[in-house]
């Protein structure tokens, strides 16, 4: 996984956490759900990148 991908995924995750927290504080369920969705997308992207890295390592051997 490239450093740019890691940074982008982390930024999306942190943005999602901020949205979720803001939604919690303001009682905005839609904003809270958007934040949770952003975090889930970032987690999925991380998982895909880890699978790609593992596959690359597997085929190097």
From TrEMBL:
SUPFAM superfamilies in the cross-refs: Hypothetical protein YjbJ
Protein known as: CsbD family protein
Region annotation (Disordered) ranges: 1-44
Family, similarity comment: Belongs to the UPF0337 (CsbD) family.
Domain CsbD-like: 5-57
Basic and acidic residues composition bias: residue spans: 7-20
